[in-house]
Amino acid sequence: MSDAHVYIISGLGVDRRVFNKINFKDLKVTYLEWIAPVSTESISCYARRLSTKITTKSPVLIGLSFGGMVAMEIAKMIDVRQVILLASAKDDNELPKLYKLIATLKFHKFVPAPILKSHHILSNYFFGVSSKEDQKLLKQILRDTDTKFLSWAINQILNWKNRAIPNNLIHIHGSKDRIIPIRNLIPTFVIQGAGHFMTITHAKEIETLLQKILLKDPKHS
Fold it and tell me: How far is CA 159 from CA 14, 89, 108, 142, 149, in A?
């Protein structure tokens, strides 16, 4: 699979910084940068617009968190060689039931986005970061997240509906993810002790795993 072109979709509002510690070596990698959403558009419509940035046939999609949900939507629209989810969900049943309750009651509509962007001890807890360096990066990412995108994306997550699972899907998840708890899903690989920020906190383990998945010889797979 080493000839595949890999497209990476980062988490909610974040950029390629969350992959800074992962070395993709000789793989052909393109980061799909977020585009501004139209306030009323669905995640499906957004994914279709984002998919126009994919210029190669049968790509591999790597989606982190919300980026994984967008990758799942793109996989319904174009032929993909493989989808790899990191700290994400394959369908809405894998998201916490609390999210559906929040969506039904529309609680998220009453929380100002700047509050969600603020960095505090609970942010560190839910993202699973402990070192000063990782906390600093998380703070920077939250600060840089576009407010309008954040509000739109949270609404899409809470109201996401998906049942279509591609056959060629790999799901990598942290055992201590507090944002999308592992108890709700059955991943392909589990990163022990990792939380939602695992591409930073457990980068080497994920790098090794991705190399094995993406560089394996199809004749022996």
Answer: 21, 13, 11, 22, 15
Q: How many helices (H) and strands (E) does the chain have?
A: 9, 6
Query: 160: which 2 tokens?
Result: 């996401």
pLDDT digits (tens, 9 = 90+) for 23-47: 998 889 999 999 999 988 999 999 9
H-type helices in 40-176, by residue range? 43-51, 66-74, 97-105, 113-117, 121-127, 132-144, 147-158
Give the whole-angstrom CA distance, residue 64 versus residue 11. 5
Contact 14, 87 (CB under 8 A): no
Cα–Cα distance between 84 and 61 in angstroms, integer? 6
Q: Based on the number of CB atoms within 10 Å of its own CB, is 184 exposed (0-12), middle (13-18) or buried (19 or more)? A: middle
Distance CA 113, CA 171 (A): 29
**Strands across the sheet with 28-31, in order?**
28-31, 5-9, 60-64, 82-86, 169-174, 189-191
Residue where the block lists tokens 């126009």 = 52
For the chain, residues with pLDDT lower than 50 are: 217-221
* Contacts of 131 by beta carbon, 8 Å cutoff, 6+ apart: 201
